[in-house]
Batch of 2 targets.
Target 1
Amino acid sequence: MPTLRIPTAPVFRPLLEPARYKGAYGGRGSGKSHFFGELMVERCLVSPGTLAVCIREVQKSLLQSSKRLIESKIQSLGVGARFQVLHDRIVTPGDGLIIFQGMQDSTAESIKSLEGFDIAWVEEAQTLSARSLSLLRQKKPDNAVVVNANWRDNPWFPAVLEEERRLDLQLYPERYPHVWEGEYAKAFEGAYFARHLEQARQEGRICRVAVDPILPVKAFFDIGGAGHSSDAMAIWIAQFVGREIRLLDYIEGV
Ligand SMILES: Nc1ncnc2c1ncn2[C@@H]1O[C@H](COP(=O)(O)OP(=O)(O)OP(=O)(O)O)[C@@H](O)[C@H]1O
Ligand SMILES: [Mg+2]
């Protein structure tokens, strides 16, 4: 068999080492899906008979699955003759199989029927519900390799995504760190203070400040509600120092 050479972005190289659990997290367009798609095809070639399942939380049709990406990788790697692409599955070398499943349509029984499978690839795992995760595993991984990848780690970052990224940075600075840099979502879109806080961050106005022992410390309560759509209660702790209002702490969800 001719050797297959697949260029891999340095950020994903630790994931080429054997590990029971492999994960990549980060912002949009960092190459996570493409990397795992290639890894899947490579693994099926190297270990004939591999049984793999591609999982999403919601998969209303195969169009929402990783099937097309895997098909395109099979083609671009020039190994089409060794795979058989069927309507809902891909037959891999040595009678192996790649199937596609949505977790919301799964039950404990249907997951158990995957016993003997070698690989589970979960795409868009940030949307996975606690129920789905516990169906897949009971314990925390002890043998895991996890990398953080973002757009600047992707040597194939396309021009259209670069355009979109710049647009987001300009028009939606409050959601940019979450979408493109893979940071936790710190504010809901449209949250009243989100834009001001992001602006303060960009202007370097968020830093460590000492409590002035002479001045009073004030607490401002933003009372939430009990309904399911209500905000959590938040408390802002502040001091008025000269012309500045120094916010010392912000406690949410109390
Ligand atoms: N190995 C690769 N070979 C060729 N192109 C690639 C490769 N990796 C990434 N790209 C390019 O970068 C783009 C973004 O990659 P990909 O879709 O894998 O990112 P992602 O991290 O899964 O993004 P998202 O978080 O939005 O799902 C792809 O559409 C493709 O154009
Ligand atoms: Mg992806």
Target 2
Amino acid sequence: MSVTHDVPTAEDGDLGLLGALGRQDPELAEVLYAERRRQSTTLQLIAAENFTSPAVLAALGSPLANKYAEGYPGARHHGGCEIADVAERLAVDRARDLFGAEHANVQPHSGSSAVLAAYAALLRPGDTVLALGLPHGGHLTHGSPANFSGRWFDFVGYGVDAETGLVDHDQVRALSRARRPKAIVCGSIAYPRHVDYAFFREVADEVGAYLIADAAHPIGLVAGGAAPSPVPYADIVCATTHKVLRGPRGGMVLCGSELAERVDRAVFPFTQGGAQMHTIAAKAVAFGEAATGAFAAYAHQVVANARVLAAHLAAEGLAVTTGGTDTHLITADPVPLGVDGRTARSRLAAAGMVLDCCALPHADDRGLRLGTAAVTTQGMGEREMRAVATLLAGVLRGDADPVAARDDVRALVTEFPPYPD
Ligand SMILES: Cc1ncc(COP(=O)(O)O)c(C=O)c1O
């Protein structure tokens, strides 16, 4: 990879340790500055991304990164963990308070690790598990043959209705009765609507299955009171701490006290070794931020922005799945504008609009997946969402030259620096 070897300017800011890094290893420091510039001069519409606060970044870059802390607070396999214990207890207490959960495990290194731990706590290899099929928006950990989940368990996929795009509840019920799964997983990488957790609980109870909610995407909205919580319904809730929640990259597991010990053992020592204490400290910071009124306002604005963006994309001619969104996430088929998903993504990338392709249920081609968490963190509102929809559709239709659109994108994002100095 090559990056421009500009000398970092005052505009680049410091982000704490970058100064020391710049003096010792200018080559790598320049890579970090280049990434920072990329993030602040292009439009971040990836539904799983966000801008963490400088406080979260400070915790990530702190000396807790040096600490080995296998085990749990008060029961570690290493010495010198008394400060690490305080950090982890803070993170656990804040997660429990934030989500009203009896137990929280904040050690999973990622969302996938959290799901792995949930399966390890509840299942045996070969057990049948019902989950949203991958072509309909299931995650790799929901039964992909390329992933441990598909290799070790017998996954049965449910889907979304071809007309409405909504989860096919009749199919969930019928498959559950026919296949008697040991666990049912609800949650998705691309479902723009609220999951009906009460419905899934009812079906799980009817067939004697555990209910696992993989709430990686909506958990930040849940924290801010902008989406329903799976905690009262699911036996285990898995989540990421990045995405809308705006913490460091990582995972967590929430459950009732009766499963606490099984979940803890499933994380360590069953699936992980030493906890990453700097990340756990950063999770504590993010949970603290998420408990504030400012975060609730942000979470509601994320949804308001997504609704406006979805409506304007539809008005521009894209086929928006389910006709809109309840969350931060939108999926859409750009084909009505004369371009398939993959071509659309690269054309938009040339214009500085960064987003993902995704599977479109009941379609051959891939669509576009976009989200409003990062742009909302930057301070953009509904006016900017209308401008984004116009720019995006113009590029896809070929009305706007991507290079010219790139200047419009730069002008827009420059008004909303993610890390103002
Ligand atoms: C529903 C769901 N589960 C699990 C994950 C995995 O998270 P990670 O990439 O941190 O392993 C994701 C990530 O996008 C997700 O959306």
